[in-house]
Amino acid sequence: MVVYEDKDFYIQKELSQIPWLKIFTKEPYKELGDMPKELRLQLWQVYDIVEYEMKSYYNPTKINMASFANMLPRVHIHVMARFENDNYFPNPMWGEKLRDTALTLPDENLFFKRLKEALHEFYSQK
Amino acid sequence: MVVYEDKDFYIQKELSQIPWLKIFTKEPYKELGDMPKELRLQLWQVYDIVEYEMKSYYNPTKINMASFANMLPRVHIHVMARFENDNYFPNPMWGEKLRDTALTLPDENLFFKRLKEALHEFYSQK
């Protein structure tokens, strides 16, 4: 599910127990270092906004981020809000599952709305 | 083992089958977004250099990067050179081990030397 899109990037929701987004560039690149410098800087600005909005909306124990793309070499950034009682904490989401808990989280639609507003504001100031 | 150090950052080697470095800020921060903006930009520049040098020295199948710090909330960046025949590929290094292979890699000391030179050159141009 795409929750945000502009001319350079789109953001997808990953189905998971936790808030988990993936930031893609529209143009595909294999590695971060293959992106033009300006776009790379912009990606980190988009990342900063996603991290900030996730942190302020969900108040997670920790933010996790990662970029692998080993199966399909098309670089993208995972941003995850982790909670000390989520199913894998403190393991990475790719590690061993440690428990089976039901997390009670606020409405994700309001989060997506706030994130979109923050990204639109960022772009309108550029 | 610390393979590089300057006034803002240090880089540690992680013991692993694959080339794996961890970039730390000297000042501890919980999240990337807690870092002063200037230092964050500098971190991504250091990351770019580490990625570039790893890629050109080892010619890996894919670069992986991640930031978790769930056990000890002190943000740092993992940079890993992945090979299609390494023990976990295409899984992340935190995922299920898939095989037991011996990788033949070039001398890491020459890589550390080249990385240090590239970082020193970057700093001398600032």
Describe this protein with a few key phrases.
homodimer, 126 residues, alpha+beta
Radius of gyration of chain A: 15 Å
Major beta sheet of chain A, specifics?
5 strands, antiparallel
From the spread of the alpha carbons, the general shape of chain A counts as: globular
Number of distinct helices of chain A: 2
Q: Quick one: which chains have the greatest interface?
A: A-B, 31 and 31 residues
Terminal Cα separation of chain A, in Å? 27 Å
Helix content of chain A: 25-40%
SS class of chain A: alpha+beta
- What is the string of SSEs of chain A from the N terminus onward? EEEHEEH
Placed side by side, the strands forming the largest sheet of chain A appear as: 1-2-3-5-4
Quick description:
With 126 residues, chain A is of the alpha+beta class.
Describe the protein's architecture and organization:
The structure is a homodimer of 126-residue chains. Chain A has helices spanning 37-58, 108-124; strands at 2-5, 9-13, 20-25, 62-67, 76-82. By secondary structure, chain A is of the alpha+beta class. Chain A has one domain (2-124): HIT family, subunit A, CATH 3.30.428.10. The first copy, chain A, has a five-stranded antiparallel sheet with strand order 1-2-3-5-4, with helices on one face. In chain A, strand 2 and strand 3 form a beta hairpin. In chain A, helix 1 (37-58) packs antiparallel against helix 2. The radius of gyration of chain A is 15 Å and the shape is globular. The relative contact order of chain A is 0.20. The A-B interface holds A 30-33, 40-41, 44, 47-48, 51-52, 55, 61-71, 73, 82, 89-92, 94-95 and B 30-33, 40-41, 44, 47-48, 51-52, 55, 61-71, 73, 82, 89-92, 94-95.
